[in-house]
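Quick question: what would this complex look like in 3D?
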Amino acid sequence: MKLLNCPINGLRPLSEFAYGGEVREPPLETSDAQWVDYLFNRNGAPGIKREWWYHVPSGTWFIAERDTGSDQVIKTYLWGEV
Amino acid sequence: MPLNLLKFALSKRHPEPPFFRQPDYLNPSYEVVIIGGGGHGLATAYYLAKDHGITNVAVLERGYLGGGNTGRNTTIIRSNYLTPEGVAFYDAGVKLWENLSQELDLNLFYSTRGHFTLAHTESAMRTMRWRAEINKKMGVESEVVGPETVKAAIPQIDLSCGGRAPILGALYHKPGSIARHDAVAWGYGRAANRMGVHIFQSTEVTGLEIRQGRIHGVHTRRGMIRTSKVLSAVAGFTPRITQMAGFRTPIVVHPLQACVTEPLKPWLNTIVVSGSLHVYVSQSSRGELVMGASLDPYEVHSTRSTFDFVEGLASHILDLFPFLAGIKVVRQWAGMADMTPDFAPIMGLTPVKGLYLDAGWGTWGFKATPIAGKTMAATIANDKPHALIHAFRLERFRDFELTGEKGAAAVGH
């Protein structure tokens, strides 16, 4: 079974986690075109991405840096720590 | 029966000649270049030649023909969708399928089975009713049936699902069918090749030549091709192509896994789908149970398969059919599903002039192979989107005109 390192609870089975999508910043001042881009478009190509993950039993949201091509997690940390 | 099959049976000359011959070299230029030698790309090449007389076409495939999602799906063909746009499109597809073995002169094992989508909750029953009424209005055979009809068609089913999720009824779609998926790619490829289309396997595209917003060529591992029209029909590789082209789309890639059991004597004559239990199952002409489930829950660009998937799927299949407990799973695999937010494809023109997109086929692409090929060929030949695919254009997101197909496209999303 694949394991993921929760910054609070350590290595736990992947089945305890939920995926929250890539970390993205909403545009503060924006045109319609930029807003549509933020709303719908995604960085779909494979690569190392910063993603939100959630440890369900403990209610912990954190960041994972993961290669979406190889599915290897490079590191995990709480928001604002790195 | 395809005439070719009869001739083959009576002939002393075996085996058949190769399905197509790959030229040694790429031509320096083609009228149309199709990236992706799966069902959709090869069908587009076939209809470009047959319907529009455009035969100076190259199909480029990074692996082997039909080795991507064409050969990785669970081969279900149906048109009982939720939106009028979706129903019209997929139903035109079913009509092409019905005569396809004859047209391609190849036995596609096209087998009309009837398709049950089980409902285990009142809200699922409401969605079934909604789909049935839209389908009937569009002239598609589709009706809501009670549990007794399900039991009569599939005597082995446990209507109570182990007491956990009793079956309240189902949406029954009589034209629901299955087909032999790799034969579809081979059939279209052979027919296109006979009309002069060049097919290149092991030929990966490494870049696009774009100047002043217009496509001028394609860079491949075997050299460069000049062309003014390029179709990208690459399913899970679409984000890599659109990244080369320099525009963004809503597509994200998740693996979709499937598996087959050892062959059994024929017992399951219909296709059974349960959205609540996240499973779909049919019995192939070889006797194997072909089974699939919902998407993997996070983005991965890989065709790796997992034990968690078989374990979860098996537990749900046993809720429906407890007598399968001793049956072995013999193969499992995954495909890279290019998912869109509204569970409808993205087809047509792109911000780059001369570059066309046939993508966003997620978990629902195999059944659309003939109609996607036909409508994309018309779109490329006329440089204008075919009327049937207007609702699937990339600009629908900008226009806030999404095609909400989530309730009918797949299971468990």
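Answer marked as accepted. The helical segments of chain A are 32-40.
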